[in-house]
Design goal:
Length: about 180
């Protein structure tokens, strides 16, 4: 068997394997199976802090039971002069079932936030709060292993200034 024939066979085998896997993948927003669906990253803004408002973070989705509920763990980090803000969230999200959804998959939910401010050489302050979230995921073509999202989150803390964030990110499939 010459070199060209071997390369052609490997190419055909890769195409066949790719098409078989392509047919089995379900879109992330519509996946009804229980368990870890996806993990991703995001970037956004915290609007209550005009200085140093850049926000970075990680996001996960875990399908919970037969109900249309997902657990959405999140970690957010916002650096600023002289310290940083970190927030750990556990949200419960419900995906809206639309008759003719097109590409957009809206969701909303609420959850618990642990909000921590770390100040250099001074110490830290930790508060517990409530999250109210709403967002939309953009369903990609069948078989895509990623899905962009846009999410707004309002965190109610026991302080005069509550946190409102708007982030855009991408989730990557674990299935």
């Amino acid at each position: 068997m010459n070199r060209f024939t071997r390369i052609a066979l490997v190419f055909v085998a890769a195409l066949a394997a790719g098409r078989a896997a392509h047919a089995q993948v379900v879109g992330l927003a519509d996946d009804a199976r229980v368990g870890v669906i996806s993990a991703g990253a995001y970037v956004g803004l915290e609007f209550d802090n005009p200085e140093n408002s850049l926000l970075l973070g990680g996001d996960g989705r875990i399908k919970f039971g037969a109900a249309n509920v997902e657990i959405n763990p999140r970690y957010s980090f916002r650096p600023f002069d002289g310290g940083s803000m970190q927030q750990l969230d556990v949200n419960f999200v419900t995906n809206y079932r639309l008759n003719n959804p097109g590409r957009f998959r809206p969701y909303s939910g609420l959850g618990l936030a642990i909000h921590r401010i770390l100040l250099d050489n001074i110490g830290s302050e930790t508060e517990v709060g409530l999250n109210l979230i709403s967002g939309v995921r953009l369903a990609m073509r069948p078989g895509a292993a990623y899905e962009p999202f846009l999410q707004a989150q309002y965190t109610i803390l026991n302080e005069p200034s509550n946190s409102f964030t708007l982030v855009v990110g991408t989730s990557f499939s674990f299935r």
